[in-house]
Amino acid sequence: MLVSRLRLRDFRGYAAVEVRLGAGLTVVHGPNGAGKTNLLEALYFGCTGRSCRTANEREVVRFGAQATRVEVSTRDPDGRDHELAVGFQPGEPKRMRVDGAQVERLTDAPARPLVSVFLPDRLELVKGPPALRRSHLDQVVAAIWPARAEVRRQYSQALVQRNALLTRIRAGRASRASLPAWDAELARHGIALRDHRAAAVELLAAPFTAAAVELGLTGEATLRYRPRSAAADAEALAAELAERFEADLERGFTSHGPHRDDLVLARDGRELRAYGSQGEQRMAVLALLLAERDVLAEERGAPPLLLLDDVMSELDGGRRGLLADRLGARGQALVTTTDLGHVPGSDTSGVTRLLVVDGTVSGDDEEALAA
Fold first, then answer.
1. Average of pLDDT values for 94-102?
2. What Cα–Cα distance (Å) separates residue 199 from each residue in 107, 155, 178?
3. Spatial contact of 92 and 57, defined as CB atoms under 8 Å apart
4. How crowded is the C-beta side of 86, counted as CA atoms within 13 Å?
5. How far apart are the first and last CA of the chain?
6. Which ranges in 13-70 belong to alpha helices (H)?
7. Minimal CA–CA distance to 140: which of 76, 194, 196, 71?
8. Cα–Cα nearest to 324, from 348, 344, 341
9. Taking all residues of the chain, what is their mean pLDDT, rounded to a whole number?
10. Residues 124-172: pLDDT tens digits?
11. Helix, strand or coil for residue 14?
């Protein structure tokens, strides 16, 4: 699935923009503060229905405007054109449409491309809390096997119910008699969730190591799933939950299960979260995104759209070249930069270039497309 065009109105600093994207690498360049990151965010917003930068989406509406609208044109492998549209007015439900039909979620729409994004704050994926890595891994599972996303929702619902029951038992408003049923329910979904995550990491591990080597991360880079439980099946996990009842009752929440698992990114056996430099952590995140791109291309038949913000600035010339080669070899990608010279090959005919200056966007062969 390729993105051919992006149209937006009243998004961040843009009043109106319409740009065409290349089928391979598109380089978005311009001075600091011109709006390059906003353009990537708008594309992500139009493809997913949410921001990749903020939980307070009021911020995406241009100052002084009442609402924003983003439209994304895509083309599927059979050559059919599709339209995704997201309208958002603060205080009102989002309005999302696919080919003119209203939908509740864009993530379930076959007409939308898969999207991976790198922003400078994505380093938190390595150095932040395990919850960020679990969430990311669950998104990868859903991207590889869309039907398996339901397991994560079912586990979350069972976890909420068990925690609520613990609260009622603690307050004397419920008995312990109904707990085994919720332990069994939580364990059933938990084992499935753990196995799905482990299967995804097994697919990602070798491509992650290979991408890390290509990007110049010294030593042996490894990706490993670290589950909290060693239970072989749902019955064993339910037994572990029962054993921890008193401790959970004292805490008031479930302290054991896949919601406490972690994804470990390491170099030479040492976790990059604790022992990696910022440069090493940066390369590890990039290697993970590139590994996911390769796996999705293999499993789903098409690589995801990569959105990479300011990814070249902290890489040396050799690593920039390696990354540029990787990006241009497969699929569609957008890279922002303040200097075209930081993106090797950006002057070739196969690369689309978009110049962003003061809320306007122009291509190589056209006049300003926005004002």
1. 91
2. 22, 17, 33
3. no
4. 29
5. 29
6. 36-48
7. 196
8. 344
9. 90
10. 999 999 999 999 999 999 999 989 999 999 999 999 999 999 999 998 8
11. strand
Tell the CATH topology of 121-301: Glutathione S-transferase Yfyf (Class Pi); Chain A, domain 2 (1.20.1050)
**Sequence letter at residue 224:** R
Long-range contacts of 74-80 (CB under 8 A, 24+ apart): 74/1, 74/2, 74/3, 74/4, 74/111, 74/112, 74/113, 75/1, 75/2, 75/4, 76/1, 76/110, 76/111, 77/1, 77/301, 77/302
Is CATH 3.90.180.10 correct for 1-114+303-371?
A: no
What's the pLDDT at 11? 95
**CB 298, CB 327: distance < 8 Å:** no
Q: Report pLDDT for 344.
A: 81
Helix axes of 278-300 and 130-144: crossing angle, nearest 10 degrees: 20
Q: How far apart are CA 28 and CA 12, in angstroms?
A: 17
- Per domain, the residue ranges of the chain are 1-114+303-371, 121-301
Q: How many residues does the chain have?
A: 371
Q: Which of 64-68, 95-99, 361-365 is predicted least confidently?
A: 361-365
DSSP string, 125-159: HHHS-HHHHHHHHHHHHHHH-GGGHHHHHHHHHHH
Residues 8 and 89: their CA atoms lie apart, in Å, by 14
Task: Confirm whether 1-114+303-371 and 121-301 share one CATH topology.
Answer: no
Q: Is the pLDDT of residue 364 over 70?
A: no
Enter the tokens of residue 352: 């689309």
**pTM score of the predicted model:** 0.88
Cα–Cα nearest to 4, from 28, 18, 20 = 20
CA 65 – CA 46 distance, rounded (Å): 18
Dihedral sign for Cα atoms in the order 323, 326, 327, 328: positive
